[in-house]
Amino acid sequence: MLLGSLGIVTLSFCLIVYTVMSVTASFLVERRMRENLALVDEFALEAASYLKNADANGLYELCLSRAEAENARFLILSPGGTVWIDTLAGLSGVRLGHAEVVDIAQGGATLSYGLHNVSEKGALPSWVGYYTAAVAYDADMVGIAMMSASVQDVFDQLAQIQQSLFLGFLLVLLLVSGLTFWFSSLITSPINALNDVMQQAVRQGFSVRFSVKGNDEVAQLGQTFNAMSEKLQNMDKMRNDFISNASHELKTPLSAMKILIESLLSTKELDEAMTRDFLGDINREIDRLNLIVQDLLTLVRFDGKTMPLKKELLSLGELAYDMVQRLSPIAQRAGIDVDVELDELCYVEGDPSRLAQVVYNLVDNAIKYTPKGGRVLVQVGRSGQRVLLKVQDTGIGIPESAISHIFDRFYRVDKARSRATGGTGLGLSIVQNIVRVHDGDIEVQSKDGEGTCFTVYLPAAPDPLDDFDEPDALAADNKEEPHEEP
Ligand SMILES: Nc1ncnc2c1ncn2[C@@H]1O[C@H](COP(=O)(O)OP(=O)(O)O)[C@@H](O)[C@H]1O
Ligand SMILES: [Mg+2]
Fold it and tell me: What CA–CA distance (Å, rounded) separates 231 from 206?
């Protein structure tokens, strides 16, 4: 920034100085030339009568008085260019060959002038103007009037102007440097501050925050950094919670197994029935461990976004029907009625095994958390552009304070009850993840003690039968099928 602005200032200064100096120089020099030409013209006019009358003394007096008045050298030359009178005497009798003289003597001009540097070699320049005018009398040229006057003062004046311009330039340069430095530090200091905070975050973790001031770009960047840090901090906390919860969950069956095995080992005389009993318990604990590890693996794959989805067009109604069939022995044992209502053909684009897991987990929960004699209703229908799956029960319900947590990993309203029924507290979390990767939504309504209703919304896929131009009767036939009550 500094270099750029200094470059611009210098460049524009050079341009300004060049223009100002050339305009001023030509104005001042030309004005002096015009003034002096008028003088020499007037001198020639006065000299004419003296020349005609051959009044050498009078002419000399005139030259001297003029020389004194104008502080210049005055000369009278013959029409051919030979010096007759010179107020400084040095050139008397010499024939001058300067262009200004030749212009008049041979060129027929009446006025002429020129600039000459008359300094010695190596000395400071000394500029002198030569001005000549024809002395005429009755249309005859009777001589040449000449004046030589220094114009060095004009050049000195120009040099002075140049000097003050240069001083001004230095001042502006200083001012611009100061301003640029101040301005750039105004921009860079918040960036440096943000950078410091970021480096601190790298070294000490994401608990540091950038104190946001104003609403400029850096402030916005700071806000984004703060939001990112918060997210990372939350993720870190979630990961820690997850690991500690998972370890705890895995420890429980392991401890149970250890107790069972230790008591088997410490018993002197093992009878067969007791051994079988213990081994059966151990086997159940292993099943439980397996279940937890399987659920954990599923969730970890969702987190790492490595869950492979084999999406295909499927009828959610048929899928729900199959899952309910599979769960009906459990429902029967628990003394619960499971009803299914499939409104119409509801197609979705999805992974059948994952969506089956959604139905299974929701219906399994409904059965688990509904007391004997209760009722579970599974519905599949359409709602605009979406297909919905509703699992309603008349069970124990979920307390209002717990509803926001039921999708959290390992969260269970009643740990003892959940474990007794083989739950891991991971089911709903898995359901939520599956619904999410299918671009769907899940909602829950529940009243403590009265029952719960989970609703899953999935984007509807077009009915595959619409693609075919089938006879109406056949199409109607096909559509009818899933309506049949199972
Ligand atoms: N239909 C329901 N009725 C009452 N409570 C439920 C229902 N479904 C889930 N819950 C509550 O939500 C918790 C989390 O469910 P989930 O993640 O499936 O874990 P679990 O392994 O315990 O079934 C359950 O422990 C239970 O407290
Ligand atoms: Mg469950």
Answer: 9
